[in-house]
Give the backbone structure.
Amino acid sequence: MTKDKPMDILLRQDRDHIAHLTLNAPDRLNALSDAMLAALQGALDQIADDTAIRAVIIAGNGKAFCAGHDLREMQAGRQAGDGGAAYFADLFARCAAVMQRIQSMPQPVIAQVHGIATAAGCQLVATCDLAIAADDTRFGVNGVNIGLFCSTPMVALTRNIPRKAAFEMLTTGRFIHTDEATRLGLINRAVPATDLADETHNLAQTIAAKLPVAVKIGKSAFYDQAQLSTAEAYAYTSAVMVENMMVRDTDEGISAFLEKRAPDWS
């Protein structure tokens, strides 16, 4: 099923229970403009309620994955009577809502990254549940180079990579390549650019083949338990395991495994 139009700022194509979202503003390096953020929010909200979709891939058209916020739009916002303060507050709130939506939706979201992922674009990579990158991709939270510390991208970054590595990137504006991004945990792995789409789709297919309700329960618990102490996390996840065990299809899956047959999942 295809849901895209050539001129749309965000393209959607569904295949194999996977929603492929493509940032489609290559002339702006797929910047997270007002229109792009609105399109992403709308698509993610729609997909979250779509039980036919079991995984999501976010990619970018053109030579870059995403170069962050649209600086031209941001500067235009300064024309308001308050110098842009209200617009900037709203912009960063809308961006934060998109990032939080990615992690709150039931389906795992995979970033398919190429070219560059900078500032809020790097934030998007760090926010996605998984990330596969072309082996020549560069990542940076380089706002400091133009006098704007990447404070909101810092939230996702510091939850992905060691703090000292994150702080160095944030304060120096230094770009890292895929080998370092993999070692630090920003991405899962890097592959040749020619294999990027297939590798990402194959990962999404592997996830889509699992019991959807189990993945939904697990994704929610994955983020929730990370905010708790060890004792609290064990108490919480024990309750989650009980919830999962009470699902009819989980009973069927375990029985099928023991009986050495394919599960008859509803």
